Amino acid sequence: MSAISRDDVAHLASLARIELTEQELNDYAGQLDVILTAVASISEVAADDIPPTTHAVPVVNVFREDVVTPSLDRDSVLDHAPAAEDGRFRVPRILDEE
Amino acid sequence: MSDLIHASAVELAAQIANKTVSAVEVAQAHLDRIAEVDGRVNAFLYVDGDGALEQARAVDHAVASGQALSPLAGVPLALKDVLTQTGVPTTAGSKILEGWRPPYDATVVERLRDAGVVILGKTNMDEFAMGSSTENSAYGPTHNPWDLERIPGGSSGGSAAAVSAYEAPLAIGTDTGGSIRQPAAVTGIVGAKPTYGAVSRYGLVAFSSSLDQAGPFARTVVDTALLHSVIAGHDPRDSTSIKEPVPDVVGAAKSADVSKMRIGVVRELSGEGYQPGVQARFDEAVELLRAQGAEIIEISCPSFTYALGAYYLIAPSECSSNLARFDAMRFGLRTDDNGELSAEDVMRHTRAAGFGPEVKRRIILGTYALSSGYYDAYYGQAQKVRTLITRDFEAAWASVDVLISPTTPTEPFRIGERVNDPVAMYKADLCTLPSSLYGGPAISVPIGLGDENLPVGLQVMAPVMADDQVYRVASAVEKALAQQWGGLLLDQAVAL
């Protein structure tokens, strides 16, 4: 499996919306390489005819009756928002981005 | 022992019910103990003294008015800081949630309240439960009460340390790849991971949703089973919650009868990398079980060798998705919102400032494993290995009732020893990962001290929804060893 470069980590960090420092980019590139080497053995097993397991205990969609039940009080939720205004979350600008 | 902090949960509940002692006195004794030793242990991130005393008063009121009590009414408990409790800070060991006071109770907390269990506070943990040593907490490491220079295991290290330091007789942890069993083993107490889906995940800050499971810690197997029976059961608010009735774990723990049980020793969970003292205690425990009439059979589970690889792809993949919710918009930290930066940049800055190194590492790893071109080779392949591990378990159940192994390959290592070597750290979970990926129940019970005079645990694994079987075997081991030692392993620890 392929080695991970500093630029690969920079791309992944951008996908994951985490600003990493130069130091972190270099450290993680090395460490991820070591981790991926350590887990590479899984490619030796499990042929095409093995189905994947997504969940420990098989689950199917679970539905409830379509009735109104109490939900969290709006003020108690907004109390811990980083910023709120007029009973709504206040967020930084989302338009005019590149 | 008669003093309050050394008593078992069963003893405390009985004394409270018959008015020998009040729940308030019991809570106060534990709050005093926390004040005395937690500066050295750092098991707690938040101590809710007022809340605990208020809950204790309610129990005393119920006792006075002759109301029927639950078997754990008035018993104090330490809660891992990954479960929400209304109005009480919940950080999951992360700076990104610092100061957040959730507006709702986790189902586990609701059930504890209903049972009259007194919640003393929130315990330290590896950030978002990612780690095996509690060193990844943003709030400093927890110290192992057996040796303060050593790790208490992780990620539920705070909960385990609280119980082994007599700060609480009961604690709740969560286990994704061993985060209850491994800390229990290295602190010399009992810890169980119930069958996946047995305990509701509602209000549990998600790390790896297909693996996360809350479970009990205590100093005795019966106390652990009692707590298990309080928190388990179907919850419509968790779509993966199991509908079947909870197995009779308390009855099994009390019976401790392993005669005619078929117990499988997993060949792959021994040998290279296992400390001689760990292996020796394990071999002695096997003989104890044989002496009690159990049939011991060696079992080969070849796919277990690949559990580490599968886990460290599946868990980071799920975490990279789950932790996307920490977007600086609705709750938790927001940094650099100066009116100039866009929402996306504020998000990038906040996640950089709020997440610690291991969390970032796993998010990046998970993002990689899920990205197009690599998905099949990594995440897809890991899910197939999960199938193979499940098949190994199912094949084993044809010839044995439970499987056993050491809980950890080594005794607790020194704080700082593995922080710069992620793979060495991950190997602490070698024995606990298979049953996490499979979803069956597993328990760790103390079986003695190893080469460095530190605790060693035995892991018992059982089929899905056969949680009673792991308690039965653990209890048999505990009983046999109590006869040899004249008490619990923890009695051999140097007092703090």
TrEMBL record, chain A:
InterPro entries, alphabetized: Asp/Glu-ADT_sf_sub_c (IPR036113), GatC (IPR003837)
Any one GO BP annotation for this protein: glutaminyl-tRNAGln biosynthesis via transamidation
Pfam family, one: GatC
PANTHER family recorded: GLUTAMYL-TRNA(GLN) AMIDOTRANSFERASE SUBUNIT C, MITOCHONDRIAL
HAMAP family: GatC
Protein name as it appears in the record: Unannotated protein
